[in-house]
Design goal:
Pfam families: Methyltransf_23
Helix content: 55-70%
Protein name: Methyltransferase type 11
Largest sheet: 7 strands, mixed
Number of domains: 2
Number of strands: 7
CATH topology of the largest domain: Rossmann fold
InterPro entries: SAM-dependent_MTases_sf (IPR029063)
Radius of gyration: 53 Å
CATH architecture of the largest domain: 3-Layer(aba) Sandwich
GO molecular function: methyltransferase activity
Strand content: 15-25%
Number of helices: 9
Coiled coil: 227-282
């Protein structure tokens, strides 16, 4: 039995940014993208995992020189197509390349390296962080975003809160900015001159984390309420649909009953019609017979009048009248 091949999911951040996946989701994506753009400092930028080229193009519009790399050839095709729609002044600032970070080579060093929504896809993220920092100028900036908390996705290999992310980042630089952007975590790092041991989470960061947990929990509670409301609407809609279906069933049953009654009436009418036709036929036959009798009677009456008006007829009539008189006299004598 053949199983359906799992397709690599397409990153649709560009579509989401322009509200093509919904207005609410678009607002969340723009909030995260604009934070990344604001945290990008300097003019020489490397975007690792540039996807459809949205961030490089936004930075290019600001006059920054951007190298965007992505391991996905489909992503580079999409980014290249999007870049062709930009002004020439933007196009000449942006270089797009299909490349794997671990094998990517360039002598250029950058003011800011972006690694947004990348680390959660990596089984050994420490190697990626070290490689990304190697492309920074001294004192350069690393901007990282990851999903905050559980975000089960086919290609996500880990869940990030704060401690693991700091363990991976703090050996290479100082945390300058820590931001919760809806359900994402954003970190800005300034590069150390040399690699150092990772540091534990500070009390301030624990306090920040608790606040972030509360905010995300409220987001979840809001979503639960919204889903319950939607479920209630769905249940009401289902009940209404069931009522409509029940009413339709009753109407169909009533229609079928009326159809049967109509058929029975039609049969009765057909039977009455046949009986009427039989009676009518008999009546017509009787009428024809009566007409024949009437015609014969009229003929006999005519003959009788003719006979009564003749001399012989008058004698016969007088004779019979005389006979009746004689008969009456005899009857009285008795």
């Amino acid at each position: 039995m053949q199983t359906k091949q799992m397709m690599r999911p397409k990153d649709e951040i560009r579509a989401a940014y322009y509200d093509q996946l919904g207005v609410a989701f678009g607002k969340k994506v723009r909030s995260r993208v604009h934070w990344i753009v604001r945290e990008t400092k300097g003019s020489q930028i490397l975007d690792i995992g540039c996807s459809g080229g949205l961030v490089p193009i936004l930075l290019g519009r600001e006059g920054k020189q951007v190298v965007g790399i992505d391991v996905s050839p489909e992503a580079i095709v999409e980014a290249t197509a999007a870049l062709r729609e930009e002004a020439h002044s933007v196009q000449e600032l942006i270089q797009l390349e299909e490349a794997n970070l671990m094998t990517f080579q360039t002598s250029q060093r950058f003011d800011t390296v972006l690694m947004t929504e990348v680390l959660e896809h990596i089984g050994e993220p420490e190697r990626f962080v070290e490689k990304a920092c190697a492309f920074l100028k001294p004192g350069g900036r690393l901007v990282v975003t990851v999903p905050f908390g559980v975000n089960d996705y086919a290609d996500h290999k880990r869940t990030y809160y704060l401690q693991h992310l700091l363990e991976q980042l703090t050996p290479y630089g100082t945390i300058e900015q820590l931001e919760r952007i809806d359900k994402w975590l954003g970190v800005t790092l300034t590069l150390h001159p040399e690699k150092q041991p990772s540091r534990p989470v500070t009390e301030q960061e624990v306090s920040w984390l608790e606040t972030a947990f509360e905010a995300v929990e409220r987001l979840h509670l809001t979503e639960i309420v919204r889903l319950k409301q939607l479920n209630k609407k769905w249940e009401l809609k289902q009940q209404k649909q069931q009522d409509i279906e029940q009413e339709q069933a009753e109407l169909v049953s009533e229609r079928d009953q009326l159809t049967r009654q109509l058929a029975e009436k039609e049969d009765e009418i057909e039977l009455l019609t046949q009986q009427y036709q039989m009676v009518l036929a008999r009546y017509e036959g009787a009428l024809v017979s009566n007409l024949d009798v009437l015609e014969a009677n009229a003929e006999w009456k005519s003959k009788y009048r003719s006979l009564a008006n003749s001399k012989l007829g008058k004698i016969v009539i007088r004779y019979w009248k005389f006979r009746r008189k004689v008969k009456k006299r005899r009857a009285r004598r008795r």
